[in-house]
Amino acid sequence: MVQTASAIDAPLLQMRGIDKSFPGVHALRDVDLSVNAGQVLALLGENGAGKSTLIKVLGGAHRPDGGIIEIQGRPVEIRSPVDAMRAGIGIIYQEFNLVPALSAWENIFLGRERTIGGFIRHREERRRAIELFDRIGVKVPVDAPCGSLSVAQQQIVEIAKALSQQVRLVVMDEPTAALTDSEVTRLFDIIRDLKTQGIGVIYISHRLDEIFRIADRVTVMRDGAHVATTPIEQLTRQRMIELMVGRTIENEFPKHRHAIGEARLVVQGLSRGSAVRDVSFEVRRGEVLALTGLVGAGRTETARLIFGADRREAGTISLDDARLDIRQPRDAIRARICLLTEDRKSQGLVLGLSVRENFGLPNLGAFSSFGFVGAARERAALNEYVDRLSIRIPHQEQLARNLSGGNQQKVVLAKWLQRNAEVVIFDEPTRGIDVGTKYEIYLLINELAKAGKAIIMISSELPEVLGMSDRILVMHDGRITGEIKDMASATQQQIMTLAVE
Questions:
Q1: CATH number of 11-88+167-245: 3.40.30.10, 3.30.565.10, 3.40.630.30, 3.40.50.300?
Q2: How confident is the model at residue 335 (pLDDT cuts 50, 70, 90)?
């Protein structure tokens, strides 16, 4: 069938007037979006801006209440993920849709198996999987169960699965959230190769530096509406932030310097196998100590030992000159040490419970009398944090799984703040969170430090480390390889030099 000139000249994807409401929430308001063939469109906005809902409409997970979707000028109805696949749309969600027990090649063709006489053509599918990985330019063990693959390898399997569907458009939602710098570079090479093949890419990320590296145009959403679509060369980082949050933020990292007191948390000789090797440090009253390094350096493992999530093989932990016997998280919580885990979905929250129930879990003792939870006291306490942290929820019984990433993080913060912890460990506190919510979390870190708390901030975001800490410890291969005290002259290059030693 010969395409008309208008169809050839039309954008690869055109979404016009997309509208979607849920009970109590108008998620999308007359949203427009377009992507050309061979173009990378960055889709930006704060958590809750409507990005995920828009992508789920495009992917057939949600039915829109209004609006039109066109592929190369032709209207299409996308009522299910199968319709999206048939339209040539492949979506790689932030949460991978892989079956851990199945091999890489089995995951790629799951649900689309080719059969002869009712038998799956295993050899052909395996061969096609190898060809897909060769096309991407990355070696992945095709027979290995996906549960045994690294996050980066699982990301490649998701990309291969999308490409196996003969896609014309690929959507990537926070694809670099758990990748190393070298893996990010390789991913960008893959995206550039997709562009040369005429494939359009919608790229969603809160890492603004990446947007300038890979995007051709930027579409910004706020409060469920389209705000602006602009060529990347016409944007600055500051302007991008202003479009997303709807206001001017003078300082992206609003660090408040104040007097730092005596040592509060003292860790000596902390060890666990090869993951953590003889780690010693102290955190002082009112200090924000950054713990950084490459992925796998031992940062999270160190935090888990302090919190009692893992058993230490050697070492001591003291708080305010008192030796602590921390064998499990309960011991750390009683000692008023809290940990905001890097994976809030699987470790920080019970997604099937409500916001109120998640808030109450570590605080039941404070809300209970004679074995019964005082619901009114619990609700009143949560309401204070809803206001203080600007948690966006329609009601306290909202399930945690239905919140945006930023609001999930705020719920985790609220439950620990209610404990009035003296040591607060933030493990990747702003991962997958928009710039507006990041700013609010930075202000909270300042507030906690000013109150005399001892703060440990684990982060892979070097600008965040430099902008928000009073002192930096760098880890490599389970050990502390360097300390940076002079924050005025500290650089990313200095940190990376220590991180690879």
A1: 3.40.50.300
A2: very high
**What CATH architecture applies to the domain 263-499?**
3-Layer(aba) Sandwich (3.40)
> If we measure between CA atoms, which residue out of 269, 306, 272, 290 comes closest to residue 428?
290
How many whole angstroms separate alpha carbon 4 and alpha carbon 76? 17
> E-strand spans in 294-374?
314-319, 322-324, 337-340, 368-369, 372-373
Tokens read off for 468 = 């928000």
Give residue 118's pLDDT: 57
The answer to whether 416 and 362 are in contact (CB under 8 A) is yes
- CA-based angle 213:216:217, to the nearest 5? 120
- Please state, rounded to an integer, the average pLDDT across all residues of the chain: 87
* pTM over 0.85, yes/no: no
pLDDT, tens only, 4-45: 444 456 899 999 999 999 877 789 999 999 999 999 999 998
Per-residue model confidence (pLDDT) at position 318? 97
Single out the residue of 60, 333, 16 nearest to residue 171, CA to CA: 60
